[in-house]
Amino acid sequence: MLPSLWHLSTYLLRVKKVFSKSVRHTRAFAKELANKLEPHKKQAVIIGLQGHLGAGKTTFIKAFARAFGYKGRVTSPTFLILRSFRLPKSAVFGKLIHIDAYRVDAAELKQLGFTDIIKNPKNILVVEWADRVKKIMPRGTAWIKIEHGEKQHERIIHHRR
Ligand SMILES: Nc1ncnc2c1ncn2[C@@H]1O[C@H](COP(=O)(O)OP(=O)(O)OP(=O)(O)O)[C@@H](O)[C@H]1O
Ligand SMILES: [Mg+2]
Questions:
Q1: CB of 62 within 8 A of CB of 93?
Q2: Confidence (pLDDT) at 55
Q3: What is the pTM (predicted TM-score) of this model?
Q4: Residue 106 pLDDT
Q5: Furthest C-alpha separation in the chain
Q6: Which portions of the chain are predicted below pLDDT 70?
Q7: Which ligand is nearest to the CA of 62?
Q8: What is the pLDDT of residue 79?
Q9: Which of 94, 120, 126, 141 is the most core-located residue (most Cβ within 10 A)?
Q10: Ligand 2 mean position to 21 CA, how many Å?
Q11: 26: Cβ below 6 Å to ligand 1?
Q12: Which of 139, 114, 128 is nearest to 59 (CA)?
């Protein structure tokens, strides 16, 4: 594709492609995004995170939580579907909520209070494997997909708003 067409299509679709060469780059991307996010008026800020095993989803979430000033341990939920991190008063959000949708469906997430979580503008919600529960992901979800690159430490991060 011609560069101008590429720029036009990324502009229209609001897709950003970030090339990550290392864990450090992926962390920097997470931090930069976290610093840019502002609460919405009527609903939570929601991120749908996609990526295969070892893509860097947990790496992203750890750096993301740190950027909001969360000091505790950030482990990925693996056996927990939902984890909630209370953020310090200095943060613009009250809670960072991390859902792993790998083993659940939309109905189960609703039973866990998904609807209330997304209604609360104080929440920032990251849903891993969000593509599996796409039908309940609200309009306005920011989609982030991490893909493996050609080399071992390369990743391509697609960001769609
Ligand atoms: N550019 C990069 N960005 C992120 N992680 C990278 C990068 N290069 C190498 N890695 C490595 O890839 C691995 C990513 O692991 P991580 O646990 O974050 O992935 P994940 O997507 O959560 O996987 P899983 O689905 O198994 O939970 C780490 O070992 C990390 O060091
Ligand atoms: Mg993980």
A1: no
A2: 97
A3: 0.90
A4: 94
A5: 47
A6: 1-13, 76-78
A7: 1
A8: 74
A9: 126
A10: 19
A11: yes
A12: 128
